[in-house]
Write a structure and sequence with these properties.
The protein is of the alpha/beta class. 39% of the residues lie in helices and 21% in strands.
C-alpha cells in the first residue's frame, strides 16, 4: 500500500510518499511560497520554480512530479491508496485519527479560532487533495489527539467555569504525533508493552514541548490552549505571567496583535539573544563570548530541567526520559547541559555515548548506574501519520 502524507502551512506543502510494505519513503519534498507565481518546489534532490497560486495548483504540480517519467516514483496517481493529513487542532471532539468526512471538516473549521495559523491551512490541504484525488480515502491525524487522555486536573485552568464551558479555554497540547511516535518506539526499544511504559518525552526543535506519559498515556503536557505555553522555544516565550500582556498594552502601548506577534515570533531564543532563533547560532555565539546568547541557552535548559523535575512527581517510576526533535536528536551540548543538571536525581551523562548518539541514531546517553536512563529517540511524525492512514483505510475496506 502507498500512502501520501501531507502537511500544509499557509504558504507551504510538505509531503512524503510511503510504501507501507516496508515503511520506506519513496519521495518527499516541500513547496514554499504557495500563493504566488514564484513558488519553489524541492522534490527529493530536484529543485525548480513553479507557479502555484493556491494549494490546489500546488498539489497538482506535486502529483505530476510523482508520476514524471524521469524523476517520478510511481506510474499513476491511482497507486496512492490513502492520504494522511496533519491537522493541528482537533479540540475536544477529536481524540484519535479518523477518516475525513463533512462532519470532520466541520470540526476542523470550528477549531480554527484555537489554531488560527494552522487549521485553515490544513483545510486548504485537504480541499486540494480531495480535488486532485477524489477517489482516494483521506485521513486526518490530529496533533492534539495524544493529549486527549490528560485528566481534568491537568488540562483545566483555574479560571471561571464558563470560560471552559462556553469558550473552551483549556490545555490541549501539541506535537502529539511526535510524542506518540517516540512513546511507541521507546517501548519497543525497551522491550516493553506500550501500556507498561512510563516516560518523560522531550521534543526540542524550533517549537518545544514535553509530555508526562504514564502507562503509555499522556497525563500532562507543557503546551497549553495554544503552542505558546511551556518551554522556551525558538521564537515563542513559553511560560510568562499573563499580566504581562495587559501591562504591555496599557503601559507599553502595544496593541493586542502586537503583543501576540511579539510573544509568538519575537521571543524565545531570538528575543533573549537578539541574534537568532537557531540553537546552533546561539551555541556558536556563546563560544565567541556573547552574553545574551549565553543567557538564552541557560534559560532554555533551565526551563526543561524544571519541567522534568515536576513531571518526575506525577508519573510512576520512570523507564526513561526521551529526547527528540531537531535539537533533542542532534545537539550534544544541550543534551549534556540538561542531563548534568539532573545529577541530584541520580542521572549522569555518559559523554562518549552522548557524542556518538546523533543524526538519526537511537540509544541511551547516560551511565549504566543512572537511576533513570536518558534516551535519544529520533521522531518520525510522517511515518506515524502514514501508519494511522493505512490502518484506517484498511479498516474501511474490510
Amino acid at each position: 500500500m502507498k500512502v501520501f502524507v501531507v502537511n500544509c502551512g499557509s504558504s507551504s506543502i510538505k509531503y512524503q510518499l510511503f510504501s507501507m510494505a516496508n515503511e520506506t519513503v519513496l519521495a518527499k519534498g516541500i513547496m514554499e511560497r504557495v500563493g504566488s507565481e514564484q513558488a519553489v518546489l524541492v522534490h527529493n534532490n530536484h529543485k525548480q520554480q513553479v507557479v502555484a497560486r493556491d494549494h490546489g495548483e500546488g498539489m497538482k504540480i506535486i502529483l505530476d512530479m510523482l508520476v514524471d517519467p524521469k524523476i517520478g516514483v510511481i506510474k499513476n496517481v491511482s497507486e496512492i491508496e490513502g492520504v494522511g493529513h496533519r491537522v493541528v487542532h482537533g479540540g475536544e471532539k477529536m481524540s484519535q485519527s479518523c477518516l475525513i468526512d463533512d462532519a470532520v471538516i466541520d470540526v476542523i473549521r470550528e477549531n480554527c479560532p484555537l489554531g488560527p495559523l494552522h487549521n485553515p491551512a490544513n483545510l486548504s490541504g485537504i480541499k486540494a487533495a480531495v480535488a486532485a484525488m477524489p477517489q482516494v480515502q483521506q485521513v486526518a491525524v490530529f496533533d492534539t489527539a495524544f493529549m486527549a487522555t490528560l485528566p481534568p486536573k491537568a488540562y483545566r485552568y483555574a479560571v471561571p467555569n464558563d470560560w471552559y464551558t462556553t469558550f473552551h479555554v483549556r490545555k490541549y497540547g501539541f506535537h502529539g504525533t511526535s510524542h506518540r511516535y517516540v512513546t511507541l518506539r521507546t517501548a519497543e526499544l525497551l522491550g516493553k508493552r506500550v501500556d507498561q511504559v512510563n516516560l518523560i518525552t522531550v521534543h526540542l526543535g524550533n517549537g518545544c514541548s514535553m509530555t508526562a506519559v504514564a502507562n503509555g498515556k499522556a497525563v500532562d503536557h507543557s503546551m497549553g490552549m495554544t503552542p505558546l505555553e511551556g518551554l522556551v522555544m525558538g521564537t515563542r516565550s513559553g511560560d510568562i505571567d499573563p499580566a504581562i500582556v495587559f501591562y504591555m498594552t496599557t503601559t507599553g502601548g502595544l496593541s493586542p496583535n502586537e503583543v501576540d506577534n511579539a510573544l509568538n515570533k519575537q521571543s524565545g531564543l531570538l528575543g533573549v539573544s537578539g541574534l537568532s532563533n537557531d540553537m546552533r547560532d546561539n551555541l556558536a555565539a556563546v563560544e565567541a563570548g556573547n552574553q545574551n546568547s549565553e543567557l538564552a541557552v541557560e534559560m532554555f535548559v533551565y526551563r526543561i530541567v524544571k519541567y522534568i523535575g515536576a513531571y518526575f512527581t506525577i508519573t510512576p517510576k520512570l523507564d526513561a526520559i526521551v529526547m527528540t526533535g531537531g535539537i533533542g536528536e542532534n545537539s550534544t551540548p544541550i543534551r549534556s547541559k540538561v542531563v548534568k543538571q539532573l545529577s541530584r536525581l541520580g542521572i549522569h551523562i555518559d559523554a562518549d555515548l552522548n557524542a556518538k548518539t546523533t543524526r538519526g541514531k537511537a540509544g541511551p546517553i547516560t551511565t549504566p548506574e543512572s537511576s533513570t536512563p536518558v534516551w535519544v529517540v529520533p521522531t518520525n511524525e510522517e511515518l506515524m501519520i502514514a501508519r494511522d492512514t493505512q490502518d484506517i483505510v484498511k479498516g474501511r475496506k474490510k
